[in-house]
Amino acid sequence: MIGLMTLLLKVFACFWYRSSELYAKVIKMSKRVKRFVIRSFIAIEIIIFTWIYCFGARGLQVVLHLYNRNQIIAANCSAYEQKIKALEHELRDWQQHKDFYYEKYAREKLHMAHADDQIIFINN
Length: 124
Fold this sequence. Notes:
Layout (H helix, E strand, L loop, with lengths): L1 H16 L2 H36 L4 H37 L1 H12 L15
Helix pairs in contact: 1-2, 3-4
């Protein structure tokens, strides 16, 4: 901050007195200051870009989160596809062997039996 104040005073003095020697010193110093300001600006810009790239609304973290979510959904889809195949296989069996599966279902779910069958209920 003090260096900047000194620079401003020298620039003011240079234009006021129009001293060529002082003017040359100010120009040299101002080149250094310009270089410093530009480098600082670029460094700050890189830091901001990196921050937004990693943690922004559409940044790297969000992309990784969505990727993991897609992997979970893909795993669920494959599990549901297997369930669908099992149900299709069961449906095909029901259609081919109707009488056997109707009787099996009636015996297991509805507790039905033939006239000569004995049914034993076990209470837990």
